[in-house]
Amino acid sequence: METYNIVVTENAxxxxxGISNYIEYSLGSRQAAINTLTxxxxxxxxxxxxxxxxxxxxxxxxxxxxxxxxxVKNFLVYYYVQGDSVVVAGVVYGRSDQxxxxxxxxxx
Length: 108
Description:
4-stranded mixed beta sheet; single chain
């Protein structure tokens, strides 16, 4: 079974920090922030094997670009496979406007 390298973009890192900060400081739960960040990072790490198991996004042009999404808790992790690497482009709250969030990921 092929193993892929995981590359997390600066944008995805920034979004992960934002999620953690929001949960900890706006919602007032440090432990929930830690648990959510741990689950997201574990999900991302698990993309090293069979990243194609998750569906392509439905929205064009990201579908054409090969973007996939994976659900972790209440969040969606967006990524694409490039050669022997999985590039994590962003992580967003699942109830957000996904088309807008994808557009912001591309333009960042």
